[in-house]
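Box S2. Input/output pair 1.
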Amino acid sequence: MSYELQTFIIAATPILELRGAIPIALFNYKLSVTSAFIFSVLGNIFPVIFILLFLEKVSLFLREKSKFFDKFFDWLFARTKRNHQGKYDRLKDLFLVVLVSIPLPVTGAWTGSLCAFLFGIPFKRAFPLISLGVVIAGVIVTLISLGIITLI
């Protein structure tokens, strides 16, 4: 499997996303900055399409079939809404961009997609906002990885 495809797959995962994919692509796979950035951003955006389109259907199906999933989704959705409702009310659409663009744990495209679902943001509005956040996060992570930006 090519390093580009591996980078894409790493970026698509819910934990690492592009925060992990870009440094791995640059330092382990020795990809160019451009390739690392492009494959990481595309990989991170890819699952957003499916999350936004199918999360409601999948969660309803699983809730009907399993008490475990019913309780899990109750917990997950309540926790996410509790943690982000105030910020969403204040920032509206900018909330998704900011949430996704900050390259820290429990932020990113997966969390942004979950929030878009919970706050009823339609696909046509949520997808471009989340994609913009992913691109900004990609720039930040790339600059940090290259040592151009340092964190204190």
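Box S3. Input/output pair 2.
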Amino acid sequence: MCVRYTLHQSDAALKAISRALAKTLTAAVAAEPRYNVTLTHRMPVVAAGGGGEAEVRGMVWGLVPFYERAKTPRRMLPNAKAETATTLAAFKDGVAHRRCLVPANGFYEWRTAGKIKLPHLFTLRDDEPFAFAGIWEPADGDLPETFGVLTTEPNALVAPIHDRMPVLLTEATMARWLGAAPLAVEEYRMLTQPLPAERMSVRPVNRFVSNSRNDGPQCLEPPEDAPPELNLGFT
């Protein structure tokens, strides 16, 4: 499950998406650096507009399915399993008609060591920006547009820490994911495969990030007490 990520270089992430789509994208409001994005945060998302053209929109993380809209409180779903999202009521219409790109610079997962949970930051090599494969739901009354992130099986880098990882899209695959027309089964399966481990890096970071209320560059700093190193096979 992916429930935390960082978008502290939003300009770089949006430029990467712009290159992938061959279209200049600008946010209506400049995005503040966010080092500890979590559920309920409003974040920039690239989705198809009314005319089918890609645009940057502010959406709240935590997909609210159609059957939750009238409930109090509403259930918010951060993730959807790629393997089952095409058949589950909460996600299948979004997968078919409302696929979006969620700009990001990295995501966090925690490794349990005894009674302590140690945060690790996963990025692409050379801190290359990327996008999560997302789906979104329309606004409804006082409910804003909401989005969720698809997850898949972990690659060899993520597996020692977590049994799931988000679906990561690069400049080569972003345009293929974005859209409002159903994807062919094989295309969907190909796009939701785990990114190869050799394209990624991981490092332990400060436990400051473990508190969802904390934000700022300290989230990316090394841990105050160096944890035991993992033998992950990649750097």
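Caption for Box S3: The radius of gyration is 17 Å. Residues 10-21 form the longest helix (12 residues).
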